[in-house]
Amino acid sequence: MAKNVLILTGDMAEALEVLYPLHRLKEEGYTVDIAAPTQKLIQTVVHDFEPGIDTFTEKYGYRVQADFAFSEIDPSRYDGAVIPGGRAPEHIRNDSAFIPLVNHFVETRKPLAFECHAALALLPLGHLKGRRCAAFWSLKPDLIAAGATFVDEEVVVDGNFVTSRAWIDHPGYMREFIRLLRG
């Protein structure tokens, strides 16, 4: 039976964190839809490290079509969801139509993958309390304040959550997410 996966993102998402899951899941035969606050061509970014700079830099990445607006999505049609990192999570968490989508995947215990800065999208919803999560190192205080356990590993599976630190961890991250999708 074919499975459907939803990518929840928006402008300024990390390019590799949108495109790698999109392509890897399609390669496995899944139908993948991208949803954003509005149905449009979203602008991704590339975060990288430059010598002498203490944090990551940001450059424009590829443009990616959002197939649907969050408000158009029926989450019951999907077997799992991915939330890419970048700066999009701090924006999309403020969209009222995003909240019931995330709540659906948490409450139904369907696989939910989020990496890097994507934990920011879940923080205000209280879903990280008591969970083990990998994330970008600078989010450690945010995860701890939310009642989560920060784990500095390639991939962490905690129930239906699959988390990783960043795009460098994609092989393990997608391997574990696909394993959960397969049941």
From TrEMBL:
Domain DJ-1/PfpI: 3-179
Keyword list, A-Z: Hydrolase, Protease
GO biological process per UniProt: proteolysis
InterPro entries on file: C56_PfpI-like, Class_I_gatase-like, DJ-1/PfpI
The UniProt record lists the keyword Lipid biosynthesis: no
Protein name (Swiss-Prot/TrEMBL): DJ-1/PfpI/YhbO family deglycase/protease
Family, per entry: Belongs to the peptidase C56 family.
GO terms for MF: peptidase activity
Gene3D superfamilies from the UniProt entry: 3.40.50.880
Domain of life, source organism: Bacteria
